[in-house]
Hints:
Blueprint: H1 3-12, H2 26-33, E1 40-43, H3 51-57, E2 62-66, H4 69-78, E3 84-88, E4 91-96, E5 99-103, E6 117-122, H5 131-144, E7 150-158, H6 172-179, E8 183-192, H7 193-196, E9 208-217
Parallel strand pairs: 1-2, 1-6, 2-5, 6-7
Antiparallel strand pairs: 3-4, 4-5, 7-9, 8-9
Amino acid sequence: MDLAFWQGRWRRGEIGWHQDEINRHLAEHWPQVGISSATRVFVPLCGKAHDLLWLAARGHEVLGVEISALAAEAFISENQLDAQRIDDGRFQRIVAGDITLLVGDFFALDPAQLANVGAVYDRASLIALPPDQRRAYVRKLAALIAPGSRSLLITIEYDQARMKGPPFAVCDGEVRDLYHRDFQIEQIGDHDVLAEEPRWRQRGLDWMRERIYALTRC
């Protein structure tokens, strides 16, 4: 992962993938995945997503990892949260109630740091990575979580000749190729993003789909 690239994007405010609201399909599809409120949820490459608050409000203990300290601190300050900061090896751990952020490189995580995690929410992680990094990401994720862990994965697909990522287009076939070795895969949603968020037309797109998957670690 190009850490300097992402840190630079956050410094320059080039965060077009960030949503100022809860993801519109999280509330709709999260119950379909069958995750109890007592389950600890891991959110990779979490940025300053408001989805963390939504998950915590529903009883989940939430663990996010984020490479940009600027993004993590923005999440704390913008939501007026009281937080403790602790050095944790190669990471800084920021704890705010039921939400913990690990500031550092996703690929430097070890399974002990994800102890008791039983679910994953990925809205902006896989689609943040260029093609040559996605397989390593999925293999690392599989190594971090226990068999039986459930995940909600959200991807987008569009004509990438018309717009450069991130967020990058990831088609259904690639999802199945990346995940089939370590996960059971079920598509549970398919939405027309341009109908819901016309702003993407200003980037030159004439179609965009958001697909939602329920995954189970084998």
